[in-house]
Amino acid sequence: MDRLLAIANQKGGVGKTTTAINLAASxxxxxxxxxxxxxxxxxNATSGLGLPREGDSIYQALIGKREIKELIRPTGxxxxxxxxxxxxxxxxxxxxxxxxxxxxxxxxAVVDVVSQYxxxxxxxxxxxxxxxxNALTAAHGVIIPLQCEFYALEGLAQLLRTIKLVxxxxxxxxxxxxxxxxxxxxxxxxxxxxxxxxRGRFGDKTFRTVIPRNVRLGEAPSFGKPVLVYDxxxxxxxxxxxxxxxxxxxxxxx
Amino acid sequence: MDRLLAIANQKGGVGKTTTAINLAASxxxxxxxxxxxxxxxxxNATSGLGLPREGDSIYQALIGKREIKELIRPTGxxxxxxxxxxxxxxxxxxxxxxxxxxxxxxxxAVVDVVSQYxxxxxxxxxxxxxxxxNALTAAHGVIIPLQCEFYALEGLAQLLRTIKLVxxxxxxxxxxxxxxxxxxxxxxxxxxxxxxxxRGRFGDKTFRTVIPRNVRLGEAPSFGKPVLVYDxxxxxxxxxxxxxxxxxxxxxxx
Lengths: 254, 254
Ligand SMILES: Nc1ncnc2c1ncn2[C@@H]1O[C@H](COP(=O)(O)OP(=O)(O)OP(=O)(O)O)[C@@H](O)[C@H]1O
Ligand SMILES: Nc1ncnc2c1ncn2[C@@H]1O[C@H](COP(=O)(O)OP(=O)(O)OP(=O)(O)O)[C@@H](O)[C@H]1O
Ligand SMILES: [Mg+2]
Ligand SMILES: [Mg+2]
Description:
By secondary structure, chain A is of the alpha/beta class. Chain A has helices at residues 16-29, 44-48, 58-62, 89-95, 105-110, 130-138, 150-169, 189-202, 215-219, 227-230, 235-252, and strands at 3-7, 34-38, 73-74, 80-83, 119-123, 141-147, 175-182. The radius of gyration of chain A is 17 Å and the shape is globular. The termini of chain A are close together.
């Protein structure tokens, strides 16, 4: 497969990290080798998998100091490895500005490892700055987690514009793989309204799988484990497993 | 009073915009003139109050093209005015880097309007870049909205470090006014654990008022209204009114 997917949305708190960790862990559980790249200075994907946010990180690869191969860490979950983030990454947004080929630093760094994995997933920070642009420039596709809220819908147009710009100028193969509805609470009309609007506007581009609001997804990171390991039978775990299967169906055509 | 407060937390989706809009509206409702500055390129505070995200915005004041006085807009809520955001603000993070006194552009821009309001509140984007640093450099105090989740606690140390740095080098009067627990769901043990941890560590710096998870807070922005106008009797509205009263008590000492 060797598919490289960015998990991106500049709106904060929509479930990017939760999707990156639990989709990667689900694909790994189904037997596919996965690499998760934590491109967010907050380092939530790193700590959510129980790794320390110290030592070398993706930052060193972006500024050309380390090979990506040297930064890969095991996670304790079979078939899942991670490239951690570190607080220095905060400076990268500004430091990258003056470097050559600043938008494609990540793309050229990952090129020699992508073929060793079925999937490489990139967790993005809540912004459309140079870190997210690097992820979009490196990626084959983008998964857009979307909370069923008003503000989440508002930001979508800007995100899709940015994806179009990256596709036109930096990465012609970039496609939107799918929009993923997250933290869905069927008791609220707001969620149903947003779902109707998103499926109406984006049709098949919207994953059939919907991730329900489930407190176990919020608890799992404090134990440094994906939800599939923390509580395999909860709805949070089964919904991300469903998402992994749906993604494999969609990607199967490639 | 003329207090200038930043609403900041680099963790995404913790309730910064919801707090900025509804605290400002509650203070206005209690008879205090308020100005809300939308410093987030997403422009959620602008649209959450029913204003268009077009035309001139705080961006023009940061780069020195417009006076802040010219950017003030009415909101339809008595005693509440807003300085809107606009998508150009996305570029400001990078553009400000090379300007003189880049950290204090906002501080020098607001200085002639602060005295006309009892409170000026600044809604910050989910990052610790130059926009948030500008807000911290201009502010008397910081309110830190905190979701009762694991990742929210994780980012706190980095935010407090940044506040300390700004206080030491750019703005000696900067204080943490309080940590505000948001989206609190009493049915989950996670929320109670986080509350115990935060009150244990920060004591009186934690507001007594806790904002419950309440779907009306998510619905109100789609009508362009603060929750106090959209549904004055709901728990979301009464909790922000309580917060405003508690803030007035705390600030009363100044
Ligand atoms: N389906 C869900 N049900 C319940 N809680 C969830 C769910 N998905 C995510 N969460 C929790 O909601 C919070 C926000 O999710 P997450 O951190 O994954 O979003 P994000 O988009 O990565 O945020 P940021 O913009 O800060 O990077 C986290 O505390 C997470 O544990
Ligand atoms: N107490 C609450 N109960 C229910 N929903 C809430 C509450 N507070 C905020 N929300 C909703 O949760 C989402 C996140 O809140 P909000 O946008 O205010 O956070 P933020 O910190 O400003 O996000 P960002 O980091 O993107 O700026 C919004 O859709 C908002 O309507
Ligand atoms: Mg995240
Ligand atoms: Mg906001």
